Amino acid sequence: MDFALPVIYSVEERDGSIVSIENKIPGKSLSKILPNLSRDDKQKALTNYIASVEALREITYPDLPYGEILTKEPITSSTWKGFLSAQVNKAVSEYDLRSKVPNLEKVVDDTHALISTLADPPKSLVHGDFFPENIMLDDKLNVTGIIDFSPMTVIGDPLMDIAGGILFMEFIDGYMPVDSEILHDIVLKKYGEGIGETIRLYRLYYSFYFSGAIDDLKMYRWCINALLNAGEGSRSKVL
After folding, report:
1. How far is the C-alpha of 87 from the C-alpha of 123, rounded, in Å?
2. Which of 12, 15, 67, 219: CA 20 to 30 A from 116?
3. CATH superfamily membership of 26-231
4. Contacts of 80 (CB under 8 A, 6+ apart)
5. Which residues, 6+ apart, have CB-to-CB distance to 82 below 8 Å?
6. Is the pLDDT of residue 173 over 60?
7. Could you tell me the residue ranges of all domains in the chain?
8. What share of the chain is helix, strand, coil (3-state, %, to 5)?
């Protein structure tokens, strides 16, 4: 699959802000295109959306540890499960979750139990913030580029981006349930029923990761609701 990735030409400070000069990637973001598409065109666009994240798995860094690569003080580990557990523990220690999630200790224990079952994946490039706003498409609904690699970008499990591609769909303006239905079918056909447990794990992971985002009420509610549902012993569906 042929598409562009960001190329940073320079990074500088202007009026107290960090500004980067990058290549311009043609197209429009999927988040702007999706609400106006027919169901058939949504099928095509979302199929290409998932295919583009699958292409990233071909970029590997076998000599790097698992974990963050674009932060000042990266959290890393020799194992993928070690990295995920460290991120969950960091969120629990930094954010006020106990007042919102009565069974927090059980949710944390259950999340760590899920993480402990993971084998180490190939050390692939994981965008980390893979959702329609960061995917550029042309008029024929082909992917032209993936943008906005960020501190969320890590070396690790490529299925994390598959999960993010599904879960973060719920955050975009103009989101409709049919979008999730189409994605659900695409992912199930590619990965089988077992993908549901993987997405359940990453729903919990991202719920901890974003649980400090109190300035983004929609995202914050999404996190707390997911943690509350987990604490009640419910099992999330794939979506």
Report:
1. 17
2. 219
3. Aminoglycoside phosphotransferase (APH), C-terminal lobe (3.90.1200.10)
4. 66, 118, 120, 121, 156, 157
5. 66
6. yes
7. 26-231
8. 50, 15, 40
